[in-house]
Amino acid sequence: MRLISKIGNKKNAIAIAAMLMLSGIGISDSVSHADNKDITKKDIISNNGKIEEYSIDTLSNEEKMVIDEAVQQAEVSGSSAGEILNCVEDDKIVSLGVEEILDQYYSEENVDQKKISDFKNTLNIDINKQLEAYENAWNERNNSDEVDYIVGEELFIFDKDTTKEEMNSVLNTVSEDYEIIVDNNFEIDETLSEQKKKRLKALKNYEGNLVVKAKLDLDQTVSSAAKELNNYACVIGAEKNYKCYVEGLTSELNDTYIGKQYYLDTCNFQDAWDSAKVGLDNQEIWIAVVDSGCNMSHSDLQGGLVKKYAVDITKKDTNGKYVRLDNLPEKQQYDTTHGTQVAGLIIAKGNNKKGIVGAARGWYNTSCQVMPIKVSSGLESNGDIYNDDVSPVISYSDLIKGIDYAIKSGAEVINVSISDSGNADAYAEVVKKAENAGVVVVACAGNANVSSKQYPAANKYVVAVGGTQGKTINKKYKKSNYGSWVNIVAPATGIVSTESGNSYTKGGVEGTSYSTALVSATVGMMRHVNANLTPKEIRSCLYSSATSITSDYFQCGFLNAGFAVQKAKYMGFRSGAPMLYEINAVDGKKIQIQWTLKNVFQPERVQLYRSESLNGTYTKIVTFKGDNIYSNFHEYVDSTATVGKEYYYKIRCVMKYGDGYKYTPYSGAIKVKIK
To answer: 3-state DSSP call for residue 227?
Structure first.
């Protein structure tokens, strides 16, 4: 509330002086401030290790009135504002007054240089250094289109032991508005599956560093803020809030249906589906698609979306919770159709006589589901928000928030079809957290046709995915980034998928975004067949199962989804032997068999063997296939057996593995006399 009204410049200065005298604030006709020739923005004092801030909030009402009147006068005349501050003896009050006035001047789109010049020339102190800081920051803000980061924002990494009080005091040197985007505090949703809760409970013991997004004060560039805060021991590092872009581009092909999904054959997804079909335990595997949103009502995605945790990370409701996508009107659920394309490529419903089949859903509808997380907030430039040729704006900080949210919400896999060339420290914190939570992060290499590292893909805990051209596995997609840091490649062109508006892409789409989605689908099925694998084990299976290629650009293999899922499955499969606990002969040569497979993880077949003696040669007489192998009771007519003769029977389990098969040990043998 402004307590002093305007009464004219000269009269006002006299009135202020009188008020200061009555209130006990030191004044003079001409204050030199000789000991404070360069007033800093905030007076941060170190006192026995405790940081204290001198700010507007610490002033008395009378002192606030002085600054208030100076700011009010600054709207009319810079010299009038300067005259008021010249009447104040207290350097700290003057410093805060200068700050408030310069904030006002430089918050305007068109800065009034005359008012600023008059203000500077009237003051009895030197504010050139301050003016330079404000001018640099204003120039940075007004040239935002020419830089690859969000101006006026910065990411800071704080040591995990930093208190809220310390963080607040340190950050207030450059910002009065900040948000912690990665921390160690979260509540576990008790409605989650036991497997998910087990993983998240383990994360409770993880103590990672803190990542904070700060909106910078008007006198701070991203460089000056970083320089300022790097002086504090609790600050590990500072990074620009880079602009990130979804890595999908429109193409010119002309078909939308299954016949054009060549990549399902090229990457051997049929074998992956067969491996994932047997022994389904109804464990849902959630693949978070951190992207531009998703059309939640698309008919081909129904039954495959985790709607409860599908949110817009850039919007909060009145309770401070992220807004659910399915609570938004359809055209607010996404900025471009890119996220819908990625989601559909992973989990579009198969075998439903329309559209396409998702790579992780298959003909048999595996338990993989997609959790769409919208991290974009509109479009760069003035483009049509629903025009796929225009990239949505995605800030470095929102992308990190989205990844962190996916971890805390129970995702097993995180798909990031987004990249940038910025620094990697902030990404490293959230990716390290994912690793400790048992979450696999898969990210695109990007579409700039360069060898320089892109993030988060290039992080050692992330699966970095490059793109190939059509069915030619040895040929690099022309725009794919490349280099030794790329871990695996997959098709990037002619990709047919779902599109916003309950439709399908008119042709194909291209980009490493879609290569990444195919890899994420594979990792989801790997998790489905063996939930106990660590991210490190999954990456090892994925890379070692890849098809060898010859390339001048990549030092990795081509995605073989079938073999990758088989290898993941075998790591659990080989742990035990089945148990044959009863076998009886009934009428004729019919035998009744009972076994249990509880010691074997998801076998695909059971083979029955027979011998005429306990330690003799056993011959395979039948292979049982399909879901019925998990039942306890089986019947078989042993047509080659002789009635009245005794035989020994035993079983073992089998699974397809590459071009061959893998086997469990045999069960114990049981003697039966054929009746």
So the answer is: helix
What is the DSSP code string of 135-189? HHHHHHHTTGGGSSEEEEEEEEEE-TT--HHHHHHHHTTTEEEEEEEE-S-----
Domain end, chosen from 220, 242, 264, is at 242
- Condensed to tens digits (0 to 9), the pLDDT of residues 111-131 reads 899 999 999 999 999 999 999
Cα torsion angle, 522, 455, 167, 206, sign:
positive
Q: Helix, strand, coil shares of the chain as percentages rounded to 5?
A: 35, 25, 40
Quick one: 63 and 134 in the same domain? yes
Of 242, 270, 298, the residue that ends a domain is: 242
Question: Residues 411, 513: one domain?
Answer: yes
Mark whether 491 and 636 lie in a shared domain: no
- Does residue 562 belong to any structural domain of this protein? no
Report in angstroms the alpha-carbon separations of 446 from 388, 524, 579, 669: 17, 22, 50, 57
Closest to 462 (Cα-Cα) out of 477, 479, 443:
443
Task: Report pLDDT digits (tens) over 126-174.
Answer: 999 999 999 999 999 888 878 888 899 999 999 999 999 999 999 988 9
Q: Decide: helix, strand or coil at residue 668.
A: coil
Domain tally, the chain: 4
99 CA to centre of own chain:
38
Judge if pTM exceeds 0.90: no
Distance CA 244, CA 293 (A): 15
Full domain range(s) for residue 601: 574-673
pLDDT digits (tens, 9 = 90+) for 265-282: 999 999 999 888 865 555
Q: How many residues does the chain have?
A: 675
- Specify whether 45 is located in the same domain as 186: no
CATH number of domain containing 186: 3.30.70
